[in-house]
User: Fold this.
Amino acid sequence: MSQYKDPLRVLIFMGLILSSFTVFARGVYQTDQDFLTEVFNNSVPKSKVVWMKADLASTVAELLGHKYAGLRIRYWRNEQRSAWILEEIGKEKPITFGIVVAEGKIENIKVLAFRESRGGEIRHPAFTQQFKLVQLDDMQLDRNIDGVSGATLSVRAMTVVARLALYLDKFTG
Assistant:
């Protein structure tokens, strides 16, 4: 009997360690207000709204692959830069992104809040740097974004909101 105690403890310990890695991915990494304060150097402009009217709602649904849940999308603009705080479902839960668009290109994209159990690797700069200076070309990103093993749906969510922010920036700019 004692020969099984140590292997069992090791298995339980390993299971706890592995399950804790998925929990570490979850969390709020930056509040919406902190993101906007950082983007606009403590001088956050008044928010503006894009209303989801028929034609726009149809295009947005095409970009997302599903209907947008709200009636409006809020954004902030200061001269040629816009900031967007958008959510998209990863596998089962929403991921909150902060996207900055300048001159029709992504200047910065961040994961502000991650609620999934997997795919949190997309929050790291090693991944997000791929989006720097990306722009739209015929409603698609102008370059390929490399995926992350085990984070396919999170990568898709970030790619989709990047396209949406770029499109809306053109629409509102």
About this structure: Residues 27-172 form one domain. The first strand starts at residue 27 and ends at 28. DSSP finds five helices and eight strands in the chain. The radius of gyration is 19 Å.
